[in-house]
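Bug report (template v2)

What were you trying to do?
Predict the complex of my protein with pyridoxal-5'-phosphate.

What happened?
Run completed; filing so the output is reviewed.

Input:
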Amino acid sequence: MLPPLAAALASAAQAPQARYGDPMMLDSLASAGQKLFAADGVAASHLTITSGAMDAIERVLAAQGFRVGDRIGVEDPGHIPLHQLCRAAGLQLVPLPVDPNGITPDGLAAALQLGLAGLVVTPRAQNPTGAALTEERAAQLSEVLRPHPSVCLIIDDHAGPVAGTQYQSITPPGQRWATVRSLGKSMGPDLRLALVAADQKTIARVTVAVSNGPGWVSHILQRTAAHLLTNNKTERLVEEAARSYQQRRDALIQALSARGIAATGRSGLNVWIPTSNEQAAVESARNAGIAIRAADPYRIVSPPAVRATITNLSNTNIQELADALARVDTNHAAAM
Ligand SMILES: Cc1ncc(COP(=O)(O)O)c(C=O)c1O
């Protein structure tokens, strides 16, 4: 039997293919997307589809008409391509400190004092730290943002339901906002798809940009996504994956704690392990046959750490990794 993605693709490829001039977004995907966003309380009367979350964020940023030198708030540590993309757009990065519950209200308030044109926030499965917003944190951040209606709020929900924590929404302070939900982590990265709900003007501009560039996102892929999003079997598989990731995160955090090392990761694919010697930690893990990443490229001003991706770690790997990190002659800082 074909796995769900292959079966959905095979069936989507049988349907008539899109032609020049056809509507950009399939009705079946638009209605699946609307339901998905509505379930999380995100207004989705204006919706589009892009080739993944980063494609969406690049186009949403371009749609705002930011000027070179405008300031953008980004998570520190944060997703490297996002930092690069903002730099490439001529924007000045303002670090937003992250704790296990997401960006901090004090950090956001300090960044807003500098005058932000926009900010990009990961609500769960924060990369690299595994942070996720709590309901209380999301409410605090909404409050801090409220007096700043000109700020554009971009939410990067790249992991969606596989994050293992509920979506928590921050209220956009004004007219400019976008919430991006990638299907990459939950359905397969090679689908290259993300749903985007945003204000009317942003969606109109992103739609024109896609139409002038790639033309549209392949309807074969859109049909596949619509099928997967409305299929109970897929939903169960995603829930199972979320549970399995959570077990692995918890097991690694526990194994490290048993060795006196504080680590965090409430959500998603990663566990975050503060350490004073990133390179020694990476090397020790490598000697045990496990690849982890130094925090250095993810950081702006935040302190050193390493990131362990738990998706493929067996129970034995988890113990081996914890042993390897315990062998490193370094200070493992207290958890964030
Ligand atoms: C925070 C974050 N955003 C976006 C992405 C990429 O999403 P997509 O593959 O849909 O472009 C990743 C991938 O790891 C990520 O960590």
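What did the reviewer find?
The first strand starts at residue 47 and ends at 50. The chain has a mean pLDDT of 95.
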